[in-house]
């Protein structure tokens, strides 16, 4: 299959040229095709959430396990009436505060509208309303609830630019939208509203503190992976490059690299402040300027992992950021990518 590329910018959403592209995208989605869709978190691989054939194409293109549920993307809260229950007014308060934006809500499912393949046969469905102007416009124009997991090969770094989507899925999808890169660079926060207290099933840009400020009550954080995940990112290893990826604490980075640099071609992903401690022959990619700039690091993380994947290094070290509420989403993605292997002092712990 030849993959089409549509160039659509936020500044030209009302142009006749864009209208033609939107109509072509709507036709493709209506007939069960799948496309690369820009959002403010990462690019999604989108298909009609009501169409089992379209959903199967998503799973096949990604090589995604069938028990890993997909998030449904909408443009209007009224669309929920057809396939999801809103447990109480607190959920509406959160939606009003954070939608459109980088948060997904797990809600009780109303059967008969969304295909069971989309929700991996669960009785719940994760839903979000993206804020990327082009992604949201496509959802509005097509008026189709779109299941859209990250548009990458399953387990690999998520795509934050349309070129990442083409690298992974060219020939496996009908088309991809070339638009502005993702603002946040990591997947949405997922809040499970089928339990009480509500639980964060996957951390993201919207934090526990952000949610608690709106509700003025405690939000729990899901601990551990689920045997049958209710959210993407809960069960399988994710976001990993091809080469071994090892967590390393900054205090031992210099000595570790010097000891290994003659044996392997090494790469390092770390804040800019560590560049001076990295030998010249070691590939270095800066994630952020300052060690506490977690948002910048998160935005650049997947791009850095993909760049290292295209280099000739055969082992990658990635800096372990300090653990605190602001770094939770970033560290979640790094831990998933490394498998929690950490070099700390003279020991490797798991």
From TrEMBL:
Q: Which InterPro entries match?
A: DHBP_synth_RibB-like_a/b_dom (IPR017945), Sua5-like_dom (IPR006070), Sua5/YwlC_C (IPR038385), Sua5_C (IPR005145), T(6)A37_SUA5 (IPR010923), TC-AMP_synthase_SUA5 (IPR050156)
Gene3D superfamilies (alphabetical): DHBP synthase (3.90.870.10), Threonylcarbamoyl-AMP synthase, C-terminal domain (3.40.50.11030)
Q: Which UniProt keywords apply?
A: ATP-binding, Cytoplasm, Nucleotide-binding, Nucleotidyltransferase, Transferase, tRNA processing
Query: Which residues of this UniProt protein bind L-threonine?
Result: 41, 68, 73, 128, 148, 188
PROSITE patterns reported for this sequence: YRDC (PS51163)
SUPFAM superfamilies named among the record's database cross-references: YrdC/RibB
Q: Which GO terms describe its biological process?
A: regulation of translational fidelity; tRNA processing
Role summary: Required for the formation of a threonylcarbamoyl group on adenosine at position 37 (t(6)A37) in tRNAs that read codons beginning with adenine.
| Entry protein name | Threonylcarbamoyl-AMP synthase
């Amino acid at each position: 299959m030849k993959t089409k590329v549509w160039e659509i910018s936020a500044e030209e959403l009302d142009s006749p040229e864009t209208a033609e592209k939107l109509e072509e995208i709507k036709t493709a989605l209506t007939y069960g095709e799948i496309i690369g869709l820009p959002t403010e978190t990462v690019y999604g691989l989108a298909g009609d959430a009501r169409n089992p054939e379209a959903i199967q194409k998503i799973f096949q293109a990604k090589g995604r396990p069938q028990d890993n549920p997909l998030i449904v993307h909408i443009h209007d809260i009224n669309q929920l009436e057809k396939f999801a229950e809103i447990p109480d007014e607190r959920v509406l308060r959160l939606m009003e505060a954070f939608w459109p934006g980088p948060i997904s809500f797990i809600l009780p499912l109303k059967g008969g509208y969304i295909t069971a393949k989309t929700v991996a046969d669960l009785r719940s469905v994760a839903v979000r309303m993206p804020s990327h102007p082009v992604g949201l416009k496509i959802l509005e124009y097509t008026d189709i609830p779109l299941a859209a997991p990250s548009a990458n090969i399953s387990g690999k770094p998520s795509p934050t630019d349309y070129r990442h989507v083409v690298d992974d899925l060219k020939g496996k999808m009908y088309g991809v939208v070339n638009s502005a890169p993702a603002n946040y660079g990591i997947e949405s926060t997922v809040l499970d509203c089928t339990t009480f207290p509500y639980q964060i099933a996957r951390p993201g840009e919207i934090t526990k503190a952000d949610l608690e400020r709106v509700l003025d009550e405690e939000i729990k954080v899901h601990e551990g992976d689920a045997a049958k995940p209710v959210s993407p990112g809960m069960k399988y290893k994710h976001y990993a490059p091809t080469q071994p990826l090892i967590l390393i604490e900054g205090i031992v980075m210099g000595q570790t690299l010097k000891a290994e640099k003659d044996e392997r071609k090494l790469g390092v992903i770390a804040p800019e402040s560590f560049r001076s401690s990295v030998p010249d022959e070691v590939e270095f990619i800066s994630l952020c300027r300052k060690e506490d700039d977690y948002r910048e690091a998160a935005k650049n993380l997947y791009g850095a992992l993909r760049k290292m994947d295209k280099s000739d290094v055969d082992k990658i070290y990635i800096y372990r950021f300090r653990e605190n509420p602001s770094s939770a989403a970033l560290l979640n993605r790094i831990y998933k990518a490394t498998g929690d292997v950490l070099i700390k002092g003279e020991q490797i712990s798991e």
